């Protein structure tokens, strides 16, 4: 049930957290203060009674298409990247559980000593019981990004919306780092995003959301309470609707 009489707009959400979000100003690895901040922001929405699934990236440690992967077979590089997501998932699990909230990590690649195997029905049952589920290893297959994993898991667990946590306020008509006159979109349709060549997610992930009519919100994770306010129905970031 919602806390303090607040009415929530989403009963179940899938949050896509990039690995880079955990690096902080150092740009690589895991920043303990940032990790704690992210854990706190996620826990806030669980106090409203929202079911939470998380897909986490690994770009702060290793990315299959990065310079560090140059010369590697693409499949091998992607599998190394999947292992990086497991490291991030376990770190986030520890940070959340240290704050008293039950969490489960499910990995698309079996690592039974560290995480549960990904089983859809078990993931849903965990969420129904108030546990946060962190999905690691992407889809378990090379050539697919964690954006695609996020769209896939969101649909599999019956999420009402996909929340894409970023380091920018939302989707702009042009790069705000290069153009001071860049305009932030508050709402977009999938068709408008495609027509304007807006790179919100990779093409496979975006098509999955569009085909299955799964709305998504792109927002700035670094601004405190943004997720909490989104769940309460406030217009934060950019909403992409079917």
Description:
The chain is α/β, with parallel strands linked by helices and 242 residues long. It has one domain (3-241): Carbamate kinase (3-Layer(aba) Sandwich). The protein has helices at residues 32-46, 74-97, 120-128, 146-156, 190-195, 203-211, 226-231, and strands at residues 12-17, 51-56, 103-107, 116-117, 132-136, 161-166, 171-172, 184-185, 187-189, 216-220, 238-241. A nine-stranded mixed sheet has the order 4-3-5-2-1-6-10-11-9, sandwiched between helices. The protein has a two-stranded antiparallel ribbon with strand order 7-8. The longest helix has 24 residues, at 74-97.
What features would you highlight for this structure?
242 residues, alpha/beta, Carbamate kinase, nine-stranded mixed sheet, two-stranded antiparallel ribbon, 33% helix
The count of DSSP E runs of length 2 or more, i.e. the number of strands, is 11
Counting helices, strands and paired strands, the structural category is: alpha/beta
Strand order of the largest sheet: 4-3-5-2-1-6-10-11-9
Count of distinct structural domains: 1
- The string of secondary-structure elements, in order, is EHEHEEHEHEEEEHHEHE
How much beta, percentage-wise? 15-25%
- What is the name of the CATH topology? Carbamate kinase
**Roughly how many Å is the radius of gyration?**
17 Å
Profile the largest sheet.
9 strands, mixed
Distance separating the two termini: 28 Å
CATH superfamily: Acetylglutamate kinase-like
CATH class: Alpha Beta
């Amino acid at each position: 049930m919602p806390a303090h009489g607040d009415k929530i707009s989403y009963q179940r959400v899938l949050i896509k957290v990039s690995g880079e979000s955990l690096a902080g100003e150092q740009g690589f690895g895991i920043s303990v203060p940032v990790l704690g901040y992210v854990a706190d922001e996620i826990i806030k929405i669980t106090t409203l009674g929202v079911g939470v699934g998380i897909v986490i990236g690994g770009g702060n440690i290793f990315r299959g298409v990065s310079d560090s992967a140059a010369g590697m077979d693409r499949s091998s590089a992607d599998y190394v990247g999947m292992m990086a997501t497991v490291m991030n998932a376990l770190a986030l699990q520890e940070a959340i559980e240290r704050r008293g909230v039950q969490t489960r990590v499910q990995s698309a690649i079996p690592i039974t000593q560290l995480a549960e195997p990904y089983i859809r029905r078990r993931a849903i049952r965990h969420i129904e019981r108030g546990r946060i589920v962190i999905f690691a290893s992407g889809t378990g297959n090379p050539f697919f990004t964690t954006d695609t994993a996020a769209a896939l898991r969101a649909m599999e667990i019956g999420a009402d919306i996909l929340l894409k946590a970023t380091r920018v306020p939302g989707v702009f008509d042009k790069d705000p780092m290069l153009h001071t006159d860049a305009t932030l979109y508050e709402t977009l349709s999938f068709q408008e995003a495609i027509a304007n060549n807006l790179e919100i997610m990779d093409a496979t992930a975006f098509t999955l959301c569009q085909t299955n009519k799964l709305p998504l919100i792109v927002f700035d994770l670094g601004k405190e309470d943004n997720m909490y306010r989104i769940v309460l129905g406030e217009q934060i970031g950019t909403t992409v609707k079917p």
